[in-house]
Specification:
By secondary structure, this protein is mostly helical. The protein folds into 2 domains: 1-113, no CATH class; 123-211. Helix content is 73%, strand content 8%. The protein has 8 helices and 4 strands. The protein has helices at 10-31, 35-45, 48-75, 86-97, 116-146, 150-170, 178-185, 187-206; strands at 2-3, 6-7, 79-84, 106-111. A two-stranded antiparallel ribbon has the order 1-2. Strands 3-4 form a two-stranded antiparallel sheet. A hairpin with a 2-residue loop joins strand 1 and strand 2. Helix 3 (48-75) packs antiparallel against helix 5 (116-146), helix 3 (48-75) runs parallel beside helix 6 and helix 7 packs antiparallel against helix 8 (187-206).
Length: 211
């Protein structure tokens, strides 16, 4: 499949779809309180709305984050493709049932020769797009509040906080996270992005966005 110059194999499309669906279910359970509380809340209020809400927020945040990595990698002449980690997707659902969530659904793998700067920019693309998406969810929240639509307002507030969280979390300089690669390329760029993203995330949580 080819979309605007980007090609996707059947396996990649399947992995993206499965990861999107699994994260939608996991975040719906997590925000409903996990375990029996989630079962009672979702069954009592219907399954469609909570899962749709999570697909539009957490699912979209993840999907566009990974596509940003792919777009920039291809821009630098890489062969790049997303691969889901089925074990981690299972863990995301199980952890949400326990009342917390650990989401590492997979990654974009690329091959080819790159400079340290190019590696850093590919890594930074995902978190940077999440910050951009967080900004785009603000008018959704404002519109939902203005027309007194609880669902639309929640889409806006939850989209805002999830995208800020993903930006800050992925910039942690550990393991396979994007922050380690960015830090290895440029300490000023790392600090200039990570510190504001972390501050905004903490602020959004303290203000109660997304809940």
């Amino acid at each position: 499949m080819n979309v605007s110059g980007l090609s996707f194999s059947a396996r990649e499309l399947r992995d993206l779809g499965l990861a999107w669906a699994a994260l939608g279910i996991a975040f719906a359970i997590f925000f409903a309180g996990g375990g029996q509380r989630a079962v009672d809340a979702i069954s009592g209020g219907g399954v469609v709305a909570p899962v749709l809400l999570s697909l539009l927020t957490a699912g979209t945040a993840f999907l566009i984050h990974e596509l940003a990595h792919k777009v920039v990698a291809i821009r630098y002449g890489q062969i790049a493709e997303f691969r889901a980690d089925y074990g981690m997707l299972f863990l995301a659902v199980v952890s949400s049932l326990a009342g917390f969530i650990f989401a590492a659904p997979g990654a974009v793998y690329h091959r080819g020769r790159l400079t340290r700067r190019e590696h850093g920019l590919i890594a930074l693309a995902g978190p940077a797009v999440n910050v951009g998406l967080a900004v785009l969810f603000i008018p959704v929240f404002v519109a939902g509040t203005a027309v007194d639509s609880g669902f639309l307002a929640l889409v806006g507030s939850r989209g805002l906080v999830i995208n800020l969280f993903l930006a800050a979390f992925n910039m942690l300089p550990f393991g396979p996270l994007d922050g380690k690669t960015v830090l290895g390329w440029s300490k000023p760029v790392f600090a200039g992005f990570f510190i504001p993203a972390l501050a905004l995330t903490v602020g959004a949580f303290l203000l109660g966005f997304g809940f």
